[in-house]
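Reminder to self: tokens first, then the designed residues, so the page reads top to bottom the way the pipeline ran.
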């Protein structure tokens, strides 16, 4: 798996990452959503450098300009519900992309810390021979992304696979490396220390879905 850690170099990305972690900013859910969206835009720009391009000629009012345009067909697929804000950031830049939405959540059958991943709702475009971009703000254990990936692979065979997350852990990355194909690209905005006893990211930021959309039952 090829890993792209975007926070290794200083940029405005780190500024937005600091804001989404800040407990003094968490009271403003609109600002949290917008910052995740802006992080998605930055990640989309960086990811765009790995796509295939074709030569095109653009007619301007005064002549012809030769340039390039994206030659790949893209499918953006986000994991509900936290992935929606990140999805919008990518869609702002890849506005011709097709889209997919799939739900995954931690199910605690024994009402303790043990959990299983449940994948339910799916509405996904055809992914055959297209570049699949799987989007989720948080890569904790990696189990959700693997479960969703396995469901998506039953639908077809993409040309390339890119996974984009805002905050990742070493444990989550190791899980993806063990269970996903070697030719996957993993894009992370930043890498955190690890997981606590309940498999929450430390230092993390809390529950991204709750911060964006309110506390769920």
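Designed residues (217 positions):
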């Amino acid at each position: 798996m090829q890993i792209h850690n975007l926070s290794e170099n200083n940029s405005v990305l780190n500024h937005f990452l600091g804001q989404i972690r800040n407990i003094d900013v968490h009271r403003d859910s609109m600002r949290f959503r917008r910052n995740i969206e802006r992080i998605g835009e930055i990640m989309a720009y960086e990811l765009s450098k790995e796509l295939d391009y074709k030569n095109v000629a653009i007619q301007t009012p005064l002549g012809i300009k030769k340039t390039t345009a994206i030659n790949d067909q893209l499918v953006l697929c986000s994991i509900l519900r936290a992935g929606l804000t990140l999805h919008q950031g990518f869609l702002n830049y890849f506005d011709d992309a097709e889209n997919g939405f799939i739900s995954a959540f931690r199910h605690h059958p024994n009402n303790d810390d043990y959990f299983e991943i449940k994948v339910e709702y799916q509405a996904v475009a055809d992914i055959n021979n297209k570049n699949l971009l799987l989007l989720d703000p948080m890569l904790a254990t990696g189990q959700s992304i693997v479960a969703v990936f396995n469901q998506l692979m039953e639908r077809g065979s993409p040309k390339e696979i890119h996974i984009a997350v805002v905050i990742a852990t070493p444990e989550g990355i190791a899980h993806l490396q063990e269970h996903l194909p070697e030719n996957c690209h993993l894009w992370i905005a930043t890498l955190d220390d690890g997981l606590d006893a309940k498999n929450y990211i430390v230092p993390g930021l809390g529950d991204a879905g709750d911060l964006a959309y309110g506390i769920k039952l």
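The longest strand covers residues 98-107.
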